[in-house]
Amino acid sequence: MLDELHVFAIVVEQSSMNKASAKLNLSQPALSRKIAKLEEELGVVLFRRIGKRLELTRIGQLTYDYAVELRQRHLRYLQMLADYNSAGRSALTIGASLTTLQTTLPDLIQALTATSPELDIKAITGKTHEIVTLVRDRKADIGIVASRIDDPALHCIPLFDDHLVLVMPRNQFVMDKGQPVIGDLNGLPMILFSKGTWYRILTDELFERFLLRPDVRMEIDSFEAILRLLHTCRAGTLLPKSYLRPELLSDNDLIVIPIRELEESKRTTSLIHAEEESLSPAVRLWIDHITSHFKRPQ
């Protein structure tokens, strides 16, 4: 259909089947067949014949507008591709909040370099507001943050939703009743992520909402360190579901305790970038690639 849309647009712009036939180097019968095929595929009439001239129908005008838009987008893509290929080794600077540095960024970098081994990735980490500033000041091409960002200078693209889960040492959690509930966290020995991050703010808001007072033994800014210390401290923790892999739980002899209220502690991990017009073609391509990556079944 793309070829027929292109032919149709040329006929409209040339205002003549003869001129369009010459421009496209097609015979008039072949040109007519392409227009007829497009009308058949779309199930509409694109032209009305009035005497010796053709006049666009209303749907014909809408189809022409769409064909022009499609052609312009295709040309922009080809130009971006040419710029990307001529740039040689591609580079991408990603700003990542402390949470996404440990949860989302490792898998994302692996996926990007698997498809483009020549990609040179630089990661800058910081708190969410610091990443927003880096992207706004063009010191990072994009940012990956564990929240939605409302900033008039930036575009925010939601990538996926996440929520907290309770992680406990295996064989150190004994239920004296049925399904655990959020109130069971009250007084529970816990190791939590350090204060100041969006993830810790979410945790504290959860405690405040349900009037919980856990027994906080440690505050650490490393998910890996938290997991390794749970057995030693005989404590639990709340971690983003996106971070946990079966091998992490198995290697550290841990289990996830399902609590319904924690599934409601949703957060959205987002990609942020500056105005599209200010981005290089290569960065725009990488943004499209990243958003497509997260739309696929994980």
Automatic annotation (TrEMBL):
Entry keyword annotation includes Ribonucleoprotein: no
Protein keywords: DNA-binding, Transcription, Transcription regulation
Superkingdom: Bacteria
SUPFAM superfamilies documented for this protein: Periplasmic binding protein-like II, Winged helix' DNA-binding domain
Annotated Gene3D superfamilies: 3.40.190.290, Winged helix-like DNA-binding domain superfamily/Winged helix DNA-binding domain
Residues annotated as domain HTH lysR-type: 1-57
One Pfam family it belongs to: LysR_substrate
Protein family: Belongs to the LysR transcriptional regulatory family.
Entry protein name: HTH-type transcriptional regulator CysL
Source species of the chain: Paenibacillus plantiphilus
Gene designation: cysL_1
